[in-house]
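Support request, please re-run this one:
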Amino acid sequence: QVQLVESGGGLVQAGGSLRVSCAASGRTFSRDAMGWFRQAPGKEREFVAVISWSGSQTYYSDSVQGRFTISRDNAKNTAHLQMSSLKPEDTAVYFCVAERDITFANMRDPDAYGYWGQGTQVTVSS
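Re-run finished. Output below.
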């Protein structure tokens, strides 16, 4: 069974840092792009970041550029999102995603990703 399982969410004060992780199982994702989306209450799912299968290319939404860093470890089948300078508006459920055929054109489209984790809650208090 192919699974993406997130961990590391929690409650943090504004200005603080948090790292969320994604562990993939069931098959290797070393040839898939991996990324993160988030969804706040009453809002649509929002692209956060994506990393290419090799790790050589990363892309971020404007809202997190410069504050968040995405990384991956293909040997461990994991991906991570290091979040710094957190703001209350970063509060959301964060979802790990993966898919092989991700391009610059579709990377922000949630429908382009076939694999999703169950999500982990990140809450930033003011």
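The chain has a mean pLDDT of 97. The two ends are 40 Å apart (CA to CA).
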